[in-house]
């Protein structure tokens, strides 16, 4: 069977080719090249440098197959196209020039930067300085809180309702003590058969996660120290202290009994609040650092200085151990411009007469990680914001 095929070239030439269906694609290409490029077949590479494409299917036809095998029909359109020549390989000179250009565009290293900027005047923009300024702010803020606590205590002691106010505050702290262990989680573990004291320890070690606490209990079931109290904590003493505090507050003398009696009661309440707000180290961090060979007291001191951050505490233990734990209890110079500016601020003055502000200061002093919740509190947040603004303003001048 003879097929009539419509052939086109990229130059715009068009014609009809009549070929038997058993003709190979290579033979068809030769006939097309004879028609459009006379004398081109003298170079044997001419045929291989061209290809035929079926216009409808956009398929490149294979030279060794026949027209029938390529499923070409009568009156189909074919395109004769010259293949693109492969890009020439770059010369060695071009390669060297390209490498040189890349080297010129490469970012300079530290030595090159220092050499180029050696004659420039030095400016105090060292990142380590900024880091130390932030560290100084944290240290200074702690000193400010220590001094503000003393001022707030004196102001609140003048309030005729101070004793009643702090009885309520003490009761709030008792509630915090009771809520420290998730009762639902504790019940789930005790119902599984675990002893209550051991379940409490597991929950505290695993941030109140029942699943992780259960895994810990199973893993340490045969551990001889499984029932030992956590480092820095004595649960029985804490429970007894909380009960005694509540009892003392309930049965405490009334403010109506006289000024001295009320003052003594207020002093006792202050002591109880301070004792309950003592720093609580992260048990996991304590255990991890003690396993490195550090003494428990040193570990607790390190975590207290570094806000319960294990990595920072480890660096403190391995370094010069500054600031020392004793530095954390020192207040700011009450005659300094910074402290005077803070006390003269109306928002701070008003906040110091609120018992909740004193509780916030005590809490942030011993547990700095809780500062976020006090910053977001509608009563204590404005006071903390003013202290921060005053510090930043005076630090820039």
Automatic annotation (TrEMBL):
Signal peptide: none
Pathway assignment: Protein modification; protein ubiquitination
Disordered as annotated region, ranges: 89-110, 224-263
Keyword set includes Cell membrane: no
Basic and acidic residues composition bias: residue spans: 97-110
CDD domains given in the database record: UBA1_KPC2 (cd14303), UBA2_KPC2 (cd14304), Ubl_KPC2 (cd17066)
Keyword annotations: Cytoplasm, Repeat, Ubl conjugation pathway
GO biological process per UniProt: protein ubiquitination
Listed GO CC annotations: cytoplasm; ubiquitin ligase complex
Domain UBA, residue spans: 174-220, 280-320
Low complexity compositional bias, start-end: 234-251
Domain of life: Eukaryota
Name of the protein in question: Ubiquitin-associated domain-containing protein 1
The species this protein was found in: Thalassarche chlororhynchos
Lineage: Eukaryota, Metazoa, Chordata, Craniata, Vertebrata
